[in-house]
Design a protein that fits this description.
Layout lengths: L1 E4 L3 E5 L6 E5 L11 H8 L5 H43 L2 E7 L14 E4 L2 E6 L2 E6 L2 E3 L5 H16 L4 E7 L5 H5 L8 H15 L5 E11 L2 E4 L20 E4 L5 E4 L4 E3 L2 H21 L8 E10 L9 E9 L5 H5 L3 H25 L11 H5 L1 H4 L4 E8 L6 H15 L9 H72 L21 H23 L2 H29 L1 H6 L16 H6 L10 H14 L1
Parallel strand pairs: 4-8, 4-17, 9-16, 9-17
Antiparallel strand pairs: 1-2, 2-3, 5-6, 6-7, 10-11, 10-14, 10-15, 12-13, 15-16
The chain binds adenosine-5'-triphosphate.
Length: about 625
């Protein structure tokens, strides 16, 4: 072993003379990550007991911190839910919005004045008179899909919080119901945005695991069609069946189930979007097969949200989110249709009227709610009353020639809101309510921000914990290995000293010539390299650079005293050489007198044992002794 300077550098020549490890003293802190695995191979077979106990303490502290953060997250989430619920209660669990479609190129030349927006009021001018309709929110012609979604978002959260939710698009044909719900590729509507948001939101709020499944159906002339069902195999002579056998069932708890309806699990947004596109196509296909009926059917999409956390084992709490593109409401009035078209129009109007009756009854808190009147209201029964939230977006056209239908839609909205225009709340109460809502919204935002902070802290603590656990596991393995190696080393060094020189006990070595048997240092190197590989594999498995850095810093933290001690030990055994920095005289082991193992250990080490074999053993033993 060549010691140039205690403070500078140590060179450890290996058996083949090629692998010379230069370790800077560590005082200057100039060890690099690349050096660490080698250093670890030399040094990490023992972690100081105090370091290990520190590590264990740190791990238990982190575990405690994680428990605390999780419970903080839970509390904050509950607080946020409570606040959201209060806000929605203030706003009303049944809300009615109005969206005015912009003028289309086909009616650009027409008069666009009959509909005027005044805050949350739509004023309709007809035959020289004005009539105002109040809404919870009005979206004017230049409102974007984003503007609409911002107002829809809280109700989605409510669905994630466990409430049943219904979002309806209502209005005359061509007023933009499908545009609002589906949108276009560059202007996605509520459904694709909601799907994205659900997955995003569920990923952020990981306190309870949430899974989603999707169903889509169409209500046509009072019959149901499963839009996600596999294509039926049909013989050529069989007529195309528009509707499947779906039965609406209500259990004792009032939960509605549609027997036979396809329900697909959706694990991410792309899968959800795939099924959604498939459902829409099925609807579109049926419209071409059966003579353009899409606008005269109701298209319903149901997302079932299952909350697995918190509930007793095996019982997931479920909530339903319905997004409904209702059939156009004008055909009967406008076209004076006959035959099938008349029947379709009648069916739509009847079910829309039934929906209006149900919503109005709920709004007025009537004891009897007429759910059973139509298939549409039967299906939505458990998602319209009690703790459910309802959002109706009424679509109107800005064109004068559609004024008749516009007034019809407004009347429907007014009925759904359950408040007569002249009985609207006084302005002061409205303002007070707005103020309260704003306060609650601020409080909710704060709770949400705190939740996000706690979530970030939790993520950091969890990743740190996993790193520390890995380091601890490696350290524990290494300590066990070191114990084994220390035992082996004792035997090996005894063999090195005794075996070749002990002419009375050569029996075990007889089968192989001496130069073919593994030397102690090669065995040690093999074992060290195995540990190094094992360690490297662990680090790689952990997949984090920081864990490597952590190991590095750990190695560094106890490397310096070790090396110093080794050097001190070496200078104790080689006082002359250490002082003069002169290599010892080369001696051949065979030339040595047979010695006992203990005397061999005490003897000054010479480079004759392939320059450093005993030194290496001694070096390692000294380091472990130090620790
Ligand atoms: N807010 C809007 N901005 C831009 N274009 C719109 C908007 N609303 C509707 N449109 C356009 O108006 C046309 C009719 O809209 P849409 O098909 O959504 O109406 P609809 O009420 O769903 O009709 P139907 O009842 O027949 O299904 C479409 O070309 C659509 O792109």
């Amino acid at each position: 072993m060549l010691i140039t300077s205690v403070e500078e550098e140590i060179s450890i020549p290996f058996e083949n003379g090629n692998e010379v490890l230069k370790i800077s003293d560590g005082i200057n802190g100039n060890l690099t990550i690349q050096e660490i695995p080698i250093i670890s191979a030399l040094t990490n077979n023992v972690v100081p007991e105090n370091t290990q106990s520190d590590l264990s303490e740190l791990i238990s502290n982190l575990e405690e911190e994680i428990i605390g953060l999780k419970s903080k997250q839970k509390d904050l989430d509950e607080k946020r839910r409570g606040l959201l619920n209060k806000i929605l209660d203030f706003k009303g669990s049944i809300r009615v919005f109005c969206r005015i479609r912009p003028l289309l190129w086909s009616n650009i030349s027409k008069n666009d004045d009959p509909v005027v927006v005044d805050l949350d009021k739509v004023v309709v001018k007809s035959a020289g008179s004005k009539k105002g309709f109040d809404f919870d929110k009005v979206f004017c012609q230049n409102s974007t899909q984003e503007d609409v979604f911002v107002e829809v978002e809280p109700i989605l959260r409510s669905a994630l919080d466990g409430h049943n939710v219904c979002i309806f698009a209502y209005g005359q044909t061509g007023t933009g119901k499908t545009f609002t719900m589906d949108g276009m590729n560059d202007q996605p509507g509520i459904v694709p945005r909601a799907l994205k948001e659900l997955f995003h939101y569920a990923s952020l709020h990981s306190t309870a695991s949430v899974t989603f499944s999707m169903s889509m159906l169409e209500v046509y002339m009072g019959n149901l069609k499963d839009l996600l069902a596999p294509k039926p195999t049909r013989r050529a002579y069989e007529p195309v069946s528009r509707c499947n056998q779906l039965n609406v069932q209500v259990d004792a708890k009032g939960v509605v189930e549609i027997e036979g309806l396809t329900e697909v699990p959706i694990s991410d947004f792309s899968k959800a979007n795939w099924w959604y596109t498939k459902g829409r196509r099925a609807r579109a296909t049926s419209s071409t097969n059966v003579n353009d009926v899409s606008s005269r059917s109701h298209c319903l999409m149901r997302i079932t949200i299952s909350h697995h956390g918190g509930a007793p084992e095996g019982q997931a709490r479920t909530s339903k989110l319905w997004m409904v593109d209702l059939g156009g409401s004008e055909r009967l009035l406008k076209t004076g249709a006959t035959g099938l078209t008349l029947d379709e129009g009648r069916a739509i109007n009847l079910s829309l009227s039934a929906l209006g009756d149900v919503i109005a009854s709920l709004r007025r808190k009537r004891t009897h709610v007429p759910y059973r009147n139509r298939k549409l209201t039967q299906i939505l029964r458990d998602s319209l009353g009690n703790e459910s939230k309802v959002l109706m977006i009424v679509h109107i056209s800005p064109v004068e020639e559609d004024l008749g239908e516009t007034i019809c839609s407004m009347s429907f909205a007014k009925r759904a809101r359950g408040i007569e225009s002249n009985q609207e709340l006084p302005q002061e109460i409205k303002q007070l309510r707005q103020k309260k809502i704003a306060e609650l919204s601020d409080e909710m935002r704060e709770a949400e921000e705190e939740y996000q902070k706690a979530r970030d802290q939790l993520q950091k603590a969890e990743s740190l914990l996993s790193e520390k656990k890995q380091v601890n596991a490696v350290a524990c393995d290494s300590t066990e290995d070191e114990e084994k190696i220390t035992d082996n080393t004792k035997i090996d060094s005894k063999e090195i000293v005794d075996t070749p020189c002990d002419s009375e006990k050569p029996t075990k070595r007889k089968s192989l010539p001496h130069y073919m048997t593994p030397t102690a240092i090669s065995r040690l190197r093999h074992s060290a390299s195995e540990r190094q590989n094992h360690y490297a594999a662990r680090v790689l498995r952990s997949g984090t650079r920081s864990s490597m850095q952590l190991s590095a810093s750990q190695s560094l933290s106890f490397l310096e005293p070790r090396l110093k001690a080794v050097l001190q030990s070496a200078s104790r055994h080689h006082p002359d050489k250490a002082a003069k920095n002169v290599p010892t005289e080369t001696q051949n082991c065979n030339n040595l007198e047979p010695k006992s193992a203990s005397s061999a250990r005490n003897k000054p080490v010479t480079p004759s044992l392939v320059n450093s074999k005993p030194t290496y053993i001694r070096h390692r033993r000294r380091m472990s002794n130090l620790i």
